[in-house]
Design brief:
With 283 residues, this protein is α/β, with parallel strands linked by helices. The chain has 2 domains: 116 residues, Rossmann fold, CATH 3.40.50.720; 141 residues, Dihydrodipicolinate Reductase, domain 2. The chain has 7 helices and 14 strands. Helix 3 runs parallel beside helix 7. The longest helix has 15 residues. The radius of gyration is 18 Å and the shape is globular.
């Protein structure tokens, strides 16, 4: 789908954390007109006018709406997990699936944790023997707001989290262990520490630098943290290595590169726009 005109976009689910972020991005995008937006209680505009529809909705709502939208020849970008393991959707990680995204009609946006972990692993996946990841995320990943009385809480630890299935499917790995820790006192941002044992010794940092040398939104740094990334679509990655073991630290804004920013990046690719449009003039 190559488009050289303004694209009419609809947004379903404008009041959730990711939906609000998507609405801000779409309203600022220079080649987009937001012709429809809705929440559970109100609608604005006509969805029939939209060429591309963003679904910032729970999985059950996405499953209900996607078939009809595809029949109406809309392009759909779904934020939920509803289609991440489906052969009917393209998994929307541009750094891996850019060519497939260009021709897609249904994009399943990756999970925020999965994005942060996979960006650290993509360049070296053929050399990986085992993976253990620990991730700390702000509370916005759960659709909530921070509490001054909140603390740190691990949940769905080890081999339980839904994101493991999508990561293993996309990376071709098995046996990944993943422990998410939510910081209830922190609004947004993810830092992932990905502990890797390699099949053979390679220079992990050089492999990442080579793989991402032409990628705008992934940067290899000496240290990776969220402070400079909040409100941006960047992912910063650092590496510490000892022999066949490495710790890859990946940092991003879970509402941007982990959700709404990545969705806009996917839309830009599908529509034939410069991938960075609407995503580089951010704070």
């Amino acid at each position: 789908m190559v488009v050289m005109r303004t694209v009419n976009v609809g947004l379903v689910g404008e009041t959730g954390r990711s939906g609000k972020e998507a609405k801000k991005l779409l309203l600022k995008h220079p080649i987009v007109e937001l012709v429809y937006s809705s929440s559970s209680s109100k609608n604005k505009g006509d969805l029939r006018d939209a060429d591309v529809v963003f679904l910032a909705t729970p999985s059950e709502v996405s499953r209900e709406k996607v078939p009809a939208l595809l029949r109406e020849n809309r392009v759909v970008i779904d934020f939920s997990r509803a289609y991440r393991l489906s052969g009917n959707a393209v998994y929307g990680l541009p750094e891996k699936n850019r060519d497939r995204i260009r021709a897609a009609r249904l994009i399943s946006n990756p999970g925020c944790y999965a994005t942060s972990i996979m960006l650290g692993l993509l360049p070296i996946v053929e050399s990986v023997e085992s993976v253990r990841a620990v991730c700390v995320s702000g509370i916005s990943g759960a659709g909530a707001h921070p509490s001054g009385e909140g603390g740190l809480r691990g949940y769905m630890v080890g081999w339980k989290h839904d994101h493991i299935k999508e990561m293993e499917r996309e990376l071709g790995l098995t046996g990944m262990a993943f422990t998410p820790i939510v910081a209830e006192c922190l609004d947004r941002g993810i830092v992932s520490a990905v502990n890797v044992v390699l099949k053979r010794r390679i220079n992990v940092r050089k492999a990442l630098e080579k793989y991402y040398s032409h990628e705008w939104f992934v940067r290899i740094k000496d240290e990776a943290g969220t402070k400079a990334l909040i409100g941006t679509n960047y992912c910063d990655i650092s590496v510490s290595q000892h022999g066949r073991e490495a710790v890859i630290v990946s940092a991003l804004d879970n509402l941007m590169k982990g959700a709404a920013g990545q969705a806009v990046q996917n839309m830009n690719i599908i529509c034939g726009f410069d991938e960075m449009i609407g995503l580089t003039d951010l704070p």
